[in-house]
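Exam revision sheet. Question 4 asks you to relate a sequence to its structure. Input first:
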Amino acid sequence: MELEEITDEVKEELSKGNKERWLAYLALTTVLLAVCATLSSFKEGNNSVDTVLNQTQAANQWSYFQAKSIKTYLYEMQKEKLEMDLKGFGPATPNELPAEYEKKIAYYTKTLARYEEEKKEISAEAKKFEKLRDEAQRRQDAYGIAVIFLQMGILLSSISALMKQKYLWYIGCGVGVVGIYFFLDGLLLFS
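Answer key, structure tokens:
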């Protein structure tokens, strides 16, 4: 009878182990969700910093663009004034004076063309930083949402383990999958 009792005990332990096997999977999924939540939180912080830095760089470029625009306006005004003065010269004007005006007008024309090219480059650079800022903001938002859903999944899994209720674990897994979706979206920007 002792052998029969031992066999019954082993069978009972084995069946108990099978019943509680889902707890091992619960622990594994909870760890997976926690790792994703940690990475999401870390990436959210990085992208927050990138958003601010790129916004600052874009603002600096637009300030530079504005400074070039002001200088362009000043050169245009000076060029127009010289052109008007040149038209007002009469026959009594010394010959070298109109030539100097023409030289100065040519210099302003060349400078204005250079400024226009520089403004195009500055504008393109500012738009590049704005694009990087917007991308970092989108990533930051996705990671933030991911953290919320991943933490809810972890919470539901923890409650499931405490209460030994499998259905809560399933709900936690579903919520965690949503969090993983947003984590991957932050990583790959597919939405």
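Marking note for examiners. The mean pLDDT is 90.
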